[in-house]
Design a protein that fits this description.
Helix content: 40-55%
Shape: elongated
Strand content: 15-25%
Number of strands: 7
Structural class: alpha/beta
Largest sheet: 5 strands, mixed
Low-confidence stretches: 32-40
Distance between the termini: 77 Å
Number of helices: 6
């Protein structure tokens, strides 16, 4: 009987040890990944050109920023639930700061179907305070070092990154409006 109890205790101990070892290894992977992500944050506006949605025009970020424009670059998609939920707040923000003429909002749709984007944007057709760009080639991942949606970058007129926001935000809060008016 003692041998059976000892055998069961050894099995339980080995199982517990294996689970503990695997959880430590997984935690180390997460830590390494988060360090990689935090090191990949850009510091300056990348030299990127993207097509303007439903147009033959191209939009070059550096050229526009050199016109003393503060750029708010927002990555989103219609297939992203948090992006769809947040979008009306962003549109309201563009209206709240519309008096600031040196501020340009760029909403970049990522790997999205044109028909879905057109249908979604019909809700906001009266707003002219932002430009919709398309990213079908994952330029955002390569140039901005981002893999998530929604994600927003704010660049100063000197092309440096002022702020980065990961995930959806309540964009009509006073601190966002103040930030954009005081840059």
């Amino acid at each position: 009987m003692n041998q059976k109890v000892l055998f069961v205790l050894v099995i339980i101990g080995a199982t517990f040890g294996y689970v503990t070892y695997q959880s430590v290894m997984l935690e180390n992977k997460f830590t390494a990944y988060s360090k990689l992500q935090s090191n990949s944050v850009i510091r300056n506006l990348p030299d990127v050109t993207l097509p303007v949605f439903n147009s033959d025009k191209k939009f070059n970020f550096i050229e526009e920023a050199k016109k003393n424009q503060v750029l708010v670059v927002h990555f989103w998609a219609t297939w992203c639930g948090p992006c769809e939920k947040e979008f009306p707040e962003l549109v309201k923000l563009t209206e709240l700061v519309s008096k600031r003429t040196d501020l340009k909002f760029l909403f970049i749709t990522v790997n999205d179907d044109k028909k879905d984007v057109q249908k979604f944007l019909k809700k906001f057709k009266n707003s002219k305070n932002f430009i919709i760009l398309e990213d079908k080639d994952n330029i955002h991942q390569k140039s901005f070092g981002t893999f998530r949606l929604p994600e927003t970058f704010i660049f100063n007129t000197d092309l440096s990154l002022k702020k980065k926001y990961i995930g959806s935000q309540d964009w009509t809060q006073k601190h966002f409006v103040d930030l954009l008016y005081n840059m």
